[in-house]
């Protein structure tokens, strides 16, 4: 029988049995259905989800197996990792992608329900923790975490963003359980709560903070990279699926590597593809997934990320979301090592480059990089009507942010951008003569 791989969509809540994970055998036993759970708008998973789906690489890899079977790929889109885990432990999703904290819950639930799962690869990561951000309303007077004491903060409990909130509050001397009123909400609900004034701050994962800032609906209060702890998203597979269908998992991981290379080689095209599929502004996608973006994409399971995952366990245990999690048993990189072959060692040893300032001219398929924020500002000042977006790295953490949303500091001839007001003020306090200025003032200084 001629092999084919068919991409199919499925409703999230009403899942027909024919769209469940595992084999949907035809009369001759030649048809295999593979169900992939992904989060289209959690754009640090795109190489295992949105972008991978749009490029069709997984289906092409399955077509090349030459094993006499027909493969049908069912893509199921979710807002968070929790429902993906629920479907995996029910045997209805074979492969899923999610953030580090949900991955631990995935491991715990799989073990608890005798449906063990394995972390098989990584999608996007940030070694300092910049994938999560705490934001406030645009007109909020809050300027530091310490001022959140006694306030209402929206987050998604059990998510990486919640982990950032808990750790950040502790460092600020605030009990995350008693010092703030935590609202457990989905990202979209939390964004609405922030806009309505029923939440004073919102701690969320990509792409929500950048999206709300871009739309003028929020401003950054805390850059997750201040924690200097890695955050990442990864791919998890059911253990029984990996053992029963190793060739299919191998095809998925090879396709993921292809999608990763596409994103890294053609970041503007990749951002526009993801934007088209998700409805997110391409400028926001590029903030995270671009050439200098907050996220680095690499399927290799780096030791730093595994070490960070082990540190995350205590946060989930304290929240009574999991017990102990055997991270070493959960992490299984044998499949991605095999899929990537000789290139795996090189990927494992690679390090993300230091972020640079970047401008995206209107109508261009390539961006322009600059050696300093001041050089970027000069370009923007000279091309104010033809710049689609401008990005600058935080002077302390390196986290990329929109130039017009950054907090700017003038220190003599230097112009320094920061994601959050507290880090900008900390710099000012350490440098005589330095002061916070507006974005308009920064542009005037270089014009």
Automatic annotation (TrEMBL):
Gene3D superfamilies: Periplasmic binding protein-like II (3.40.190.10)
SUPFAM superfamilies: NosL/MerB-like (SSF160387), Periplasmic binding protein-like II (SSF53850)
Signal peptide boundaries: 1-21
Keywords: Signal
Pfam family, one: NMT1
Domain SsuA/THI5-like: 88-270
Annotated InterPro entries: SsuA/THI5 (IPR015168)
PANTHER family assigned: ABC TRANSPORTER SUBSTRATE-BINDING PROTEIN (PTHR30024:SF45), ALIPHATIC SULFONATES-BINDING PROTEIN-RELATED (PTHR30024)
The protein, known as: ABC transporter substrate-binding protein
Organism: Streptomyces nigra
